[in-house]
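Provenance

Sequences were taken from public entries as deposited. Structures were produced by running a predictor on each sequence independently, with no templates supplied. The record for Hemoglobin and hemoglobin-haptoglobin-binding protein 3 from Cladocopium goreaui is shown for reference.
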Amino acid sequence: MMEKRPMDTSFNQKSFWSMNAMINKAYADKWGYRFTLAKPEAMLSSHVAESWYRVPWLQERLRSKNAACGWMLYMDSTAFVQNHQVSLSRYLDDLFKDQPMNLRTGGIFQWDARRSGMVSDKIFFIQANGHGEELMNAWRSSSSEDEAMSFEAAEQGTLTELLFPGKVATRSAKAMKLFQVSHAKIHVGSEQLRGKATVLFSAGTEGQCWGDFIQDTSLAPEAVKKKRSLEQLRRIGLVGARFNERLPALSAAMRGWKVPTWTAGMAGHQALISQKVKVQVKEENLEAEEKEILAELGESEE
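Predicted structure for Hemoglobin and hemoglobin-haptoglobin-binding protein 3:
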C-alpha cells in the first residue's frame, strides 16, 4: 500500500486508510507475507501528479524483490482484503481455474468500472519476475515522454494505452480530454506488451471482479468507506484495544520513500504525439472498440 496521510497513533473510526492498513497487515501476517506501507517523503514538482507515485515505487520493489516472492499485490488505501481465509496462491489458482493464465503474464488488472475503456490501477497483481519487470519498466519509462503526468490518474490512461495501443484510451475523445494521454511505448524489446498483462472484467460499479476476496470502496461515499472498514476490523477482531496492541507492528511495516526525480517530455515532442493520437471517435463506437479487443484476445463478455 501507499499513503501520504498520517497513520493514527490509536484506534480511530474516522480514518479508513489506517483501518485498511491494519486489515491488510493482519492478512499478510496470517499467511506469512511481507507487508509494506510506503510513505512518500517528498512532493514532486507541479508537472507530476501524485497518482504516478505507485509506478516508480513498485518498480523499485521489483528490483529489490525477495527471491521467495512470487507475486506482489498493490492496493490503494481505499481497499482491503476481505477474505482472510484464502491465501494469495489459492485465490490466483481459483481465478484461473477455468482458463490457464498466459505464461507471459506480468500483471493482472481489471477494467475500471467508473472510467469506461480504462484499465484500473487501484488494485492489481505484479509477478515478481522478468515479465513483471518488463511491464513496470515500460509503464515507468512511458511517463518520461508524457506531459499527461501533470494529470491525476493519467498513469491509468498511459497503462491502458500501453496494453491496448490506439484501441481504447487514445481513441476516446472523453479520455483524451480527461487525461491527455500521449502515445506511451508499446513495445518491450521486440515483444508487444499486450501478452504481459491479463485484464479482467468487473461486474457492477464497485470492482466486483475480485469477488469476495478484496473490497474496493473507492467509489463509495466517505461515510460508507469508514463503515465497511470498521465492519471488517470487527470481523477479524481488531477494534479498540486490539487495534492499539498491533499498531507497533504496523508502524514497523511503514517505509519512508524518497520520490525520484522525474523529467518532463519536451513540448515540441508532445505536440507531435498529440497530432498522431487525437483521433476523434464517437462514444457509441467505444463498445465496438472493446468487442474488437476481446476478439483479438480470444475472449468474450459472457
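Residues 40 and 257 are 5 Å apart (CA to CA).
Residues 16-144+193-266 form a domain with the Spore Coat Polysaccharide Biosynthesis Protein SpsA; Chain A fold (CATH 3.90.550.10).
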